[in-house]
Write a structure and sequence with these properties.
155 residues; globular; alpha+beta
């Protein structure tokens, strides 16, 4: 393991050293719940290969990242409360990428959620109360996403 992957939380999750709520896995990526969500059900589509920049991944991995992201978006839109989704990919630390490993955010949006989303954007890593009940919330959201993905048919 090189220095980049040794300290990467996503590489630790992929290696099974850190617990995460994984809802999908294939040959190119995994989908997991963001531990610091901007909205309920905020997903991360994480490349299996460690790379800081999208253009450093094989083209098939890039394509699969977005195919899976689109599938997750469609699944969330199967929930009557979810009106739309945001796709966000910060391509490198200079673009506000907190973990230097390619990952695509799929953020479900609900009516009236903008004030809360903006508040969480400002405080999500600072709020000491966010950890209260986090495991239970993430497990509940993971079960919901798995059900939505299953209802959407095969990958």
């Amino acid at each position: 393991m090189n220095h980049d992957t040794e300290h990467c939380v996503f590489c630790a999750i992929l290696a099974g050293r850190v617990v995460a709520d994984i809802v999908h896995r294939d040959a190119h990526c995994v989908v997991l719940l963001d531990a610091f969500p901007l909205t309920r059900g905020h997903l991360l589509v994480v490349a299996l290969r460690h790379a800081e920049h999208l253009e450093d991944l094989p083209q098939e991995s890039v394509a699969q990242l977005f195919r899976v992201g689109a599938r997750c978006s469609a699944a969330w839109r199967g929930d009557a409360a979810v009106r739309a989704t945001n796709f966000l990919l910060n391509n490198g630390q200079g673009a506000n990428q907190h973990v230097p490993h390619v990952h695509l955010h799929i953020i479900p949006r609900r009516r009236g959620d903008t004030p809360l989303l903006l508040w969480r954007q400002l405080t999500r890593f600072l709020n000491p109360f966010a950890a209260l009940g986090r495991r239970e919330r993430l497990a509940r959201d993971a079960a919901r996403v798995r059900a939505l993905l299953a209802a959407g048919g095969p990958a």
